[in-house]
Amino acid sequence: MGVTLRFVADQLVAPTDTDLQQASGDLLHALIAAPPRGCDVAAIVPSGDEHLASSFSGLREAQSVGLARRELAAAWQMGIAGTVGGGLIHSPSLMAPLVRHDRANRGDQTVVTLWTYDAWESKSSMSKTQRMWTRAMLKRAAKHADAIVVPTFALAEKLHDLHHFGERIRVIAGAAPSHFVVPSDGAARLRDLQIPAAFAVVPIDGASRDDVETALVGASGAVTSDRDVVVLGAAEGTEPQIADMAAAAGIPERHVHVRGALDAADRAAVMSQADVAVFAGSRVAWPWRLVEALRLGLPVVATDSNLHREVVSDGGLLVAAADLKDAVRRAVDEEAERLRVMSSDRGRAYSWQSAAEQVWQLHAEL
N or C: the chain end with fewer CB closer than 10 Å? Predict the structure, then answer.
């Protein structure tokens, strides 16, 4: 008798986060592409899309639970599983029916995923409602999840301080979007976005004000080498504040270009033409943009932290915040070629195929 892994695909029906939507789709594709012998994959989805199976060749079925995503999130937060049933359930987030189940006799398993510690440390990247829901679901996971997947050991250490997960925490890294490649119309996209010819890129998605200020001070090292600074991922309405922070960091107004959230194709076009990517911060969250920079072989300079040390490893320059400016200058001048090779090599360490293989192995071990 075959075994079906049931994948919670709410982000593919009613996405609440673009990065999580991309990760869910890529992981689902990878799980379907290489199942162990005798295994297949089905999806659990909120109501609203009966055609998901047609978008994923090889998906056994897409089971609708009859509730819209918002209502489903509330029901699962209260421990109401409804008609979901048992079996092997894998969620790429905390969105899962975390209830009492019988793993020993029936073989039921529920595995969830946490990508960020923001619900406990950051108020800028999450709403109050999101923080409360995340905290409540992690408490349910502590009681009922057979395993909780995190992308880094840095996040695993944080979780050990919150709940008694014991050996249930497993580290499985994410990856850049499978379609994250330089588009054929990249030059046209750069013109439309009014991107300068030579620049350092500073992705700030979810970053705190202090982190943005630190990154801009570091990026000013590129300005001394005749580059501009392009800031990506600015929240709507924050452009004037970021321009003021850039001026305080010593970057003249004519040399800073602030852009909002871009789709993957636009990001790839912009980042592929940058001379260096600058990252600052102590957030314990999977660094989506940093991994994208590594995927493109872009020189990376980041502040030294447990998370950056783990993800970047020897793929870039990790320095103290006070040394960031000088490191950026070196990255665009004498160390540029060496850093491109190092970045490209490190970028190959992350793939959704590898993540899927580890997910299958995790469920086999359980």
Answer: N
User: What span, in angstroms and rounded, lies between the C-alpha atoms of 102 and 88?
Assistant: 11
Q: How far is the C-alpha of 260 from the C-alpha of 266, rounded, in Å?
A: 11
Rounded to 10 deg, the angle between the 18-33 and 352-365 helix axes is: 70
pLDDT given for residue 53 in this prediction? 73
- pLDDT, mean of residues 211-228: 96
49 contact partners, CB below 8 Å, separation of at least 6:
12, 13, 62, 64
Work out whether the CA dihedral 349, 350, 356, 361 comes out positive or negative: positive
Label residue 54 by pLDDT band (50, 70, 90): confident
- Which of 151, 148, 143 has the alpha carbon at shortest distance from 169? 148
Q: How far apart are CA 2 and CA 76, in angstroms?
A: 28
For residue 331 the two structure tokens come to 């990255």
Which H or E element spans position 353? helix 352-365
Please state, in angstroms and rounded to a whole number, the distance separating the CA atoms of residues 339 and 107. 48
Residues β-bridged to residue 3: 39
Q: What is the CA radius of gyration of the chain?
A: 21
Residue 287: closest CA among 143, 118, 141: 118
Instruction: Find residue 88's DSSP bridge partners.
Output: 5, 109
DSSP string, 212-276: HHHHHHHHHHHHTTT-EEEEE-PPTT-HHHHHHHHHHTT--GGGEEE-----HHHHHHHHHH-SE
